[in-house]
Amino acid sequence: MLTRCGVGGLLLYDYDRVELANMNRLFFRPEHAGMTKTDAAVRTLNEINPDVSLESYTMNITTVEGYESFVRSITGADGASRVDLILSCVDNYEARMTINQAALELGQTWMESGVSEDAVSGH
């Protein structure tokens, strides 16, 4: 949706790979099975709007290395935030709390969104 609206840029983080089970709730296609989710997302989003700047990071932000990379990617050289919003679409509590910690440390606005596996409920 953000890509279709022409948002300036997106930073994408995920360490997982696309599985056929993901097809019911994400924009992935069967030919993406086995690709990293970030690479598949960049491919699809570039097809939707090639003018959006996309940065892809295939790593787990709950590790020390992943967390440090995440914080570096959302802060500029002057230490100020270079993003307007962190939109979290994670599927586990640990990652959610990691994003919350980074947002608190940086004074950054963030929002959580998701849908259940059967797409009947969400948050």
UniProtKB/TrEMBL annotation:
Stored Pfam families: ThiF (PF00899)
InterPro entries for this protein: ThiF/MoeB/HesA, ThiF_NAD_FAD-bd, Ubiquitin-activating_enz
Domain THIF-type NAD/FAD binding fold, residue spans: 1-116
GO cellular component: cytosol
Any one Gene Ontology BP term: protein ufmylation
Keyword tags: ATP-binding, Metal-binding, Nucleotide-binding, Ubl conjugation pathway, Zinc
Domain of life: Eukaryota
GO molecular function, one term: UFM1 activating enzyme activity
Entry annotated with the keyword RNA-binding: no
The family this protein is said to belong to: Belongs to the ubiquitin-activating E1 family. UBA5 subfamily.
PANTHER family per record: UBIQUITIN-ACTIVATING ENZYME E1, UBIQUITIN-LIKE MODIFIER-ACTIVATING ENZYME 5
The protein's name in its UniProt record: Ubiquitin-like modifier-activating enzyme 5
